[in-house]
Specification:
GMP Synthetase, Chain A, domain 3, alpha+beta
């Protein structure tokens, strides 16, 4: 009975994708975009950033630290030029950066 419900979650209904399919597709896009974006970065900086979305001319990035975000802001013009030949980023004209919040570890909440 449980496998029937899982199959229902993965099937299209009335020609529309299920919410789970949409989520899986978005996740796959994010992984692909992140890999492409990281390919134009040097050294350890490539592991400090992830692509969260592409909305029109805006490339939304999530940085692991303020230092990484600052470096990317200074590199923005050069990065945009390197992104133009890549099909996924052809329409991108601006980088929007956010800094990830660090979660507190257990016991640090005092």
């Amino acid at each position: 009975m449980t496998t029937d419900r899982i199959d229902d979650l993965l099937q299209q209904h009335n020609g529309r994708y299920s919410p789970l399919q949409k989520l899986l597709h978005r996740s796959a896009n994010q992984r692909s975009w992140t890999a492409e974006f990281r390919s134009i970065l040097d050294g350890p900086l490539r592991y400090e950033v992830e692509v969260t979305d592409i909305k029109g001319p805006h490339l939304l990035l999530l940085c692991r630290s303020a230092a990484a975000a600052t470096r990317l802001r200074f590199m923005a013009d050069d990065l945009l030029q390197k992104l133009q030949p890549l099909a996924s980023f052809a329409q991108v004209r601006e980088l929007k950066l956010r800094i990830a919040r660090l979660s507190t570890e257990a016991g640090d909440d005092y």
